[in-house]
Automatic annotation (TrEMBL):
Entry-linked InterPro entries: DNA-binding_RecF, DNA-binding_RecF_CS, P-loop_NTPase, RecF/RecN/SMC_N, RecF_2
Subcellular location field: Cytoplasm
Cellular component annotations (GO), alphabetically ordered: cytoplasm
Taxonomic lineage from the root: Bacteria, Bacillati, Actinomycetota, Actinomycetes, Micrococcales
PROSITE patterns reported for this sequence: RECF_1, RECF_2
Keyword set, alphabetical order: ATP-binding, Cytoplasm, DNA damage, DNA repair, DNA replication, DNA-binding, Nucleotide-binding, SOS response
Protein known as: DNA replication and repair protein RecF
Binding positions (ATP): G30, R31, N32, G33, Q34, G35, K36, T37
Organism of this sequence: Cryobacterium cheniae
Domain RecF/RecN/SMC N-terminal, residue spans: 3-364
Length: 389
């Protein structure tokens, strides 16, 4: 899969821009603040319906405008399609494929990309929500129907939390129990599917993660991913201690008779506490993913270089997994301002690691930061305009 052309209207600092891309590596060069990252952010949004920079989509709309438009022409398996999304400051966003209106959440099934940016260091050092979001975005790229499962789970979770808060405020806890059981059934059904799908994904990422980490770092530090599940007693509110494999965590082993049984038992055991706090305390929305290096949690123990290598390896492993599964070719690999953070040897190793992908988009402030082999097609950006390329 590759992007042949990108068109932006009222997106970030672009009133209007047209950019063509070639197969293989594409280098986007420009000083900081000129709009390099805005181009790849737009493509990342087409793939995941989220930004790697902001949580509020209206921030991507050009100042003073009511909507921004991302339009990309894609090519795979000899087929060309036109995808488009209109991001609205108020109201729902709108999406089209080949000029036909589709549900916005269906857009992700048409374009697959993996983006790595400096913000991804938070995957290692940040809170669990970022790691959950990483897993769920990758799940949807692999199995698009899971977007509906995740959306349904969020809806049920909100409604269940509303009931718990209402019961706490009114004191009618006994009355709420019957209704809670109805919501429990739906929460367990949807949540168990998400937990199982995440567990399978974690297992599949193991081998490509190890290979990618060694390719980037030049050493094998035993990188691992370990699921930490709230239905088995892991507590998101508790600080992570030095032992990554503790009660409530799983590697690739079974977590019990069935995930649903464990989920339902956890809900029953926490019923009183949930009513006291007015919130759902177990489920995939409370789970975490522990990153391990040298048998210790990367968070709190890994150096800056090790953390950077882990985050980058995780994205490269994701891209490798998607290319194995895909019938539409490689995902588009996007590296946003990565090479400036790497020493010369790691730049060369990363260049070698990405050379086999069908299309790679790279942004850099300084041309000399990027190995020559990745600069064959260079696009220069200045003040929200393409000045060369």
């Amino acid at each position: 899969m590759r992007v042949t052309h990108l068109s932006l209207t009222d997106f970030r600092n672009y009133a209007q821009v047209e950019v063509s891309f070639a197969p293989g590596p594409n280098l986007i060069v420009g000083r900081n603040g000129q709009g390099k990252t805005n181009l790849v952010e737009a493509l990342g949004f087409l793939s995941t319906l989220s930004s790697h920079r902001v949580s509020n989509t209206s921030a991507m709309i050009r100042a003073g405008r009511d909507a921004g438009i991302i339009r990309a022409r894609l090519e795979y398996n000899g087929r060309e399609i036109l995808t488009e999304v209109q991001i609205n400051r108020s109201g729902l966003n709108r999406a089209q494929v080949n000029r036909s209106v589709i549900k916005t959440r269906e857009l992700t099934r048409f374009f697959s990309s993996v983006l790595f940016a400096p913000e991804d260091l938070a995957l290692v050092r940040g809170d669990p929500s970022g790691r959950r979001r990483f897993l769920d975005q990758l799940l949807v790229l692999r199995v698009p129907r899971l977007a509906g499962v995740l959306a349904d789970y969020d809806r049920v979770l909100r409604q269940r939390n509303t009931l718990l808060k209402s019961a706490r405020a009114s004191g009618l806890r006994t009355t709420a129990l019957g209704t809670l059981e109805i919501w429990d059934d739906r929460l367990v059904a949807l949540g168990s599917e998400i937990i199982d799908e995440r567990a399978d994904l974690v297992r599949l990422l193991g081998d490509p993660l190890g290979a990618a980490y060694e390719a980037v770092a030049g050493e094998d530090h035993g990188p691992m991913l370990v699921s930490s599940l709230s239905i088995l007693g892991a507590d998101e509110d508790a600080a992570l201690e030095s032992e990554p494999l503790r009660s409530g965590t799983t590697g690739s082993v079974s977590i019990g008779p069935t995930t649903g049984d464990s989920f339902r038992a956890a809900l029953a055991g926490l019923r009183r506490k949930e009513l006291d706090r007015g919130m759902t305390l177990v489920g995939p929305h409370r789970d975490d993913l522990v990153f391990v290096l040298n048998s210790l949690p990367a968070k709190g123990y890994a150096s800056h270089g090790e953390s950077w290598s882990f985050a980058l390896a995780l994205k490269l492993a994701s891209a490798e997994l998607l290319r194995r599964d895909s019938t539409t070719g490689d995902p588009v690999l996007i590296l946003d301002d990565v090479f400036a953070e790497l020493d010369l040897s790691r730049r060369r190793r990363l260049a070698a690691a990405v050379s086999g992908f069908e299309q790679v988009l790279i942004t850099a402030a300084v041309l000399e930061d990027v190995p020559d082999g990745l600069a064959a097609h260079t696009i220069r950006i200045h003040a929200g305009a393409v000045v060369d390329g």
